[in-house]
Design goal:
This protein is mainly alpha-helical and 162 residues long. It is built from seven helices and five strands; from the N terminus they run ββαβββαααααα.
Length: 162
């Protein structure tokens, strides 16, 4: 007769770092909950954090492959990068994953602009998306880059600010 083994609370965690683990149930619900492996105690310098789908899938990919997918990293928003770097610091995984902050090119900014503009056109009214798009418009209309003329940039920003 087969013995049925009940899952334990500990089964909900993936090791992420030498001394830390991440709750996979919470991660599937776009929340990072980090604990110590030894006793599942809380980590003082990293509170439970709500994250975007993009960051969730990025972290899941790291859990699966144990390496950073740079193409996916390029697509993370600035706020996602801040959360991810805080996660790396808390887990001491920066050197293990050979993390280096990706420096976006003008072409990356243009692709991100087009993606966010499409999201807004499709009806997404997220404040975070609007703010990131305003930042990109400001950057792309700066005299050094000059990919969007100033009057168009001002019109875009005015529409997004309404």
């Amino acid at each position: 007769m087969d013995t049925i083994v009940k899952p334990t609370y500990r089964d909900n965690y993936f090791q992420f770092g030498i001394m830390t683990c991440i709750n996979r149930v919470k991660l599937n619900n776009n929340i990072i909950l980090l604990k110590y492996v030894k006793n599942l105690g809380p980590i003082n310098n990293f509170k439970q954090t709500k994250i975007t789908n993009e960051l969730k899938y990025f972290i899941i990919d790291i859990l699966d492959t144990n390496k950073i997918n740079v193409d996916t990293q390029k697509k993370l928003s600035n706020s996602d990068i801040v959360i991810f770097e805080k996660l790396l610091h808390a887990t001491k995984m920066t050197s293990q994953l050979k993390y280096t902050k990706y420096i976006s090119t003008i072409e990356d900014h243009i692709q991100r602009f087009n993606l966010l503009r499409s999201a807004i056109s499709a009806g997404n009214q997220s404040v975070e998306i609007k703010n990131e798009l305003i930042d990109l418009i400001t950057l792309l209309s700066s005299p050094l880059i000059n990919k969007i003329n100033k009057s168009d940039a001002n019109e875009f920003i005015l529409m997004l600010s309404e």
